[in-house]
Amino acid sequence: MTVATTVTGTVRSSDVIPARAAWSAVVRAGEQLTLTDLHGNQAVDFLVYDARDTAVRYSAPDTVHAQGSIFLTTGSVLLSNEHTPLMTVTEDTCGRHDTVGGACSKESNTLRYGHHTWSQHACVDNFLAEGARHGLGKRDLVSNINWYMNVPVEKDGTLGIVDGISAPGLRVTLRAERDVLVLVSNCPQINNPCNGFDPTAVEATIGEATA
Questions:
Q1: What are 88-115's pLDDT values in tens digits?
Q2: 3-state class of 35 per DSSP?
Q3: Neighbours of 13 (CB within 10 A)
Q4: Residue 6's pLDDT is what?
Q5: How far apart are CA 208 and CA 211, in angstroms?
Q6: Which residue among 4, 137, 175, 202 is buried most deeply as judged by most CB within 10 Å?
Q7: Mean pLDDT, each 10-residue run in order, the chain (211 residues)
Q8: DSSP assignment of 53-104
Q9: For residues 40 and 164, what is the distance between their CA atoms, to the nearest angstrom?
Q10: With contact defined as beta carbons under 8 Å apart, do 173 and 5 qualify?
């Protein structure tokens, strides 16, 4: 069952990102990007760059340090490597999102799950293919955000990727603080519970900011 997104204001574009697929868009300053987990329990790997100067890009250390938390939710500001705001989370109906789990790759799959996983598609493949459309390469990939992924951290510092806390129709909305380029990998991982072992589609909607 597909759940429609509730977006206020004028919608400029709306795309369903198929399971395992990549997506990208320029979100103009003041516009809002809504990512909707259509079927529930689907991790959405995410990178963001200044659209006018991609050397300015999302910085996990700056973002985590500034907000004093490794989890993102309403009010979180995504900061760049220049400690300047790129996007702000204006709505979050899920509750929290991961900044430390990283993107799956052929190498990490092999290390964690065995050599038989080498041929499986991964988020790094998606980021490289989609980034190439905008002149980005491997050196431009940085630590990413994982919307909807559940990565709890214990008191002793151990962490794990566990069953998600999302559900069909939950959404996260971000306001662009400048013109930004967004890269998305709709995570294809099937070896851990981040996608419920069954990757599904998500929706990306770009609309005008509400007053």
A1: 999 999 999 999 999 999 898 888 888 8
A2: strand
A3: 12
A4: 53
A5: 9
A6: 202
A7: 54 96 98 98 98 98 96 98 98 96 90 86 96 98 97 84 93 98 97 93 90 52
A8: EEEEEB-HHHHHHHHT-SEE-TT-EEEBTTS-EEEEEEEESS--EESSS---
A9: 8
A10: no
What is the spatial distance between Cα 180 and Cα 186, in angstroms, rounded to a whole number?
Answer: 19
What are the CB-based long-range contacts (under 8 Å, 24+) for 77-84? 77/177, 78/48, 78/145, 78/174, 80/50, 80/56, 81/56, 81/57, 81/142, 82/56, 83/59, 84/56
CA-to-CA distance for 187 and 202, rounded, in angstroms? Answer: 10
- In whole angstroms, give the CA distance from residue 25 to residue 23: 7
Question: Rounded to an integer, what distance in angstroms lies between the CA atom of residue 105 and that of residue 127?
Answer: 10
Q: What CA–CA distance (Å, rounded) separates 74 from 10?
A: 22
Q: How many CB atoms lie within 10 A of CB 155?
A: 5
- 109: its two tokens: 């799959």
Which residue's structure tokens are 């989370």? 89
- Helix, strand or coil, per DSSP, at residue 123: helix
Q: Cα–Cα distance between 53 and 48 in angstroms, integer? A: 11
